[in-house]
């Protein structure tokens, strides 16, 4: 699944940094002093907002967010430092500018209702020396990153020079640049790979409405002419539109089951698109994945991020998506898919092995195993695990190649790798309904058998085809080589 490929991708996020402060409580009365609600505070917490929330989304989805921006020399900046220190997947490349007050937004919330937002911010211009320092940090960080995000909140950091630096860095290193705009003229972002405006920004730039699919399609040529490239338009409750100069428009409806708070949805979209493009996905698949992620985040209260397991689970609700066509899975994906199979009432089988050289015995075993369950998971030992079990001369084929071959078999519904000597950890995590092994085992010697039986599962032994084994194939190959001299 595409989300598995997000892991470890380094995304450079450049833009306006803020500190978000959430004060939550309940309202039971009106103040006797004035016509104002009295919020009884129950909790408060802080999060890095603006471009920082984009970086946080990158981190929560398995990537590494490298954040470049400006903060002041104040308490808000110090709290941002603390928040960064708590997340190993966030890298702080911020420039400290004493004359720049760190932007802080305090939201007072009762339940899911925002009562008031109080902002602390000034409006100083970025000094030339600070802008030069930002450009240097962009150039240095981009050399190790897989994509760049320009997160423009119109607070003064995303200047023409900063946009140009990101575009040049993207070209120099061959990485995509995703721009989340605030400027009224999309031409200011020319050279970026893709633009992700919301409906209001799109209408402001084109001076045309964007209230329906037809409106969007009429305005699309003007928007793309300004920007000079593809646009992913976020449309709130109407979902998303992918506008590409060389393709017909694609409109994807909103995927959220409930709408609680749209704060930060655009940050999530930019993060997912950048991660997906960095992982080699097509823009359409990247946008569809981002739309699903946005549907998750708007169901949360306050500025929020999406974690990989949430996104995987949500994507499984849209199983016709081309993003789900890979059988190879990480454990996180496998757990989410297994849970979805359980929800649908499907029985799940599990088997494992080295599968070093695939032969008729393997294929027959897997075909027979698949007939005893609705879905079959096959776990393969990694190369290191095989060497410990079989010796330094094995495996013959690397684990990636072995997994690809196993996943290509019709009988196999999912394949994943494990590095331990036994698959016990996978069995405990996936809790299959049945473990299937060859008849050369006994019920007592099957790893995980007792565990599966403890919750009502079963163990079944499958008859083997005599005369086939990887060891015999290797030995026969050696004999042939020796015979030929």
Automatic annotation (TrEMBL):
Top-level lineage group: Bacteria
Gene Ontology molecular functions: ATP binding; heptose 7-phosphate kinase activity; heptose-1-phosphate adenylyltransferase activity; phosphotransferase activity, alcohol group as acceptor
Gene Ontology cellular component terms for the protein in this record: cytosol
Binding residue positions for ATP: 198-201
Pathway given in the UniProt record: Nucleotide-sugar biosynthesis; ADP-L-glycero-beta-D-manno-heptose biosynthesis; ADP-L-glycero-beta-D-manno-heptose from D-glycero-beta-D-manno-heptose 7-phosphate: step 1/4; Bacterial outer membrane biogenesis; LPS core biosynthesis; Nucleotide-sugar biosynthesis; ADP-L-glycero-beta-D-manno-heptose biosynthesis; ADP-L-glycero-beta-D-manno-heptose from D-glycero-beta-D-manno-heptose 7-phosphate: step 3/4
Pfam families xref list: CTP_transf_like (PF01467), PfkB (PF00294)
Residue numbers annotated as active site: 267
Biological process (GO), any one: lipopolysaccharide core region biosynthetic process
Residue ranges constituting the Cytidyltransferase-like domain according to the UniProt record: 350-445
Ribokinase: region residues: 1-322
InterPro entries: Bifunc_HldE, Carboh/pur_kinase_PfkB_CS, Cyt_trans-like, PfkB_dom, RfaE_dom_I, RfaE_dom_II, Ribokinase-like, Rossmann-like_a/b/a_fold
Catalytic activity annotation: D-glycero-beta-D-manno-heptose 7-phosphate + ATP = D-glycero-beta-D-manno-heptose 1,7-bisphosphate + ADP + H(+); D-glycero-beta-D-manno-heptose 1-phosphate + ATP + H(+) = ADP-D-glycero-beta-D-manno-heptose + diphosphate
Region (Cytidylyltransferase): 350-485
Enzyme Commission code(s) on record: 2.7.1.167, 2.7.7.70
Keyword hit for Kinase: yes
Keyword terms of this UniProt record: ATP-binding, Carbohydrate metabolism, Kinase, Multifunctional enzyme, Nucleotide-binding, Nucleotidyltransferase, Transferase
Limits of the Carbohydrate kinase PfkB domain: 10-305
Subunit text: Homodimer.
Similarity annotation: In the C-terminal section; belongs to the cytidylyltransferase family.
Main function: Catalyzes the ADP transfer from ATP to D-glycero-beta-D-manno-heptose 1-phosphate, yielding ADP-D-glycero-beta-D-manno-heptose.
Annotated protein name in UniProt: Bifunctional protein HldE
Organism: Tianweitania populi
Gene it is expressed from: rfaE
